Amino acid sequence: MGQPGQGEAAWLAGGLAVAVAATAIAATLELRHPSVDPGGDPGGVRQQTLRSISVAAPSDAKVQNHSVGPPIWDSCDGRPDTQGWSYVINAYQFTSAHSAATVVGAVATN
After folding, report:
1. 3-state secondary structure of 47
2. CA 43: distance to chain centroid?
3. For the purposes of burial, counting CB atoms within 10 Å of the CB of 30, is it exposed (0-12), middle (13-18) or buried (19 or more)?
């Protein structure tokens, strides 16, 4: 058994690592051309691609929360000059017996 608080650190690192990976992928694939494209994710291509991120979680992961969402046309406080598509979301929060360093290292190599 590990040190007190070690599980919480692993959970936080694991959840953050997968969320960061998902956000990075979504940000890279983000679409901000509504006059050209019919939506933020035409055909659901990005959302389909992000379904595979669950492989980044360690084999003993116990998923605490899984959030999935399509892009939404939105703006900051209703200002028209800030309109655009939000990110495609596929985020996992999980616990694991693995150390935070192990989880982050595995995500980085995958």
Report:
1. helix
2. 19
3. middle
The pLDDT of residue 27: 57
* 23: in domain: yes
* Domains contained in the chain, number: 1
Please state the pTM of the whole predicted model: 0.54
In a domain, 36, yes or no: yes
Structural domain includes residue 1 = no
- Report the alpha-carbon distance of residue 32 to residue 42 in Å, rounded: 12
83 occurs within a structural domain: yes
Phi-psi region of 43 (alpha: psi -120 to 50; beta: other; left: phi over 0): left
d(CA 16, CA 65): 12
The whole-number average pLDDT for the span 53-69 is 89
The residue behind tokens 């399509």 is 70
pLDDT digits (tens, 9 = 90+) for 16-41: 666 666 665 655 555 444 454 568 88
**Residue in the structure block whose two tokens are 């992928």:** 25
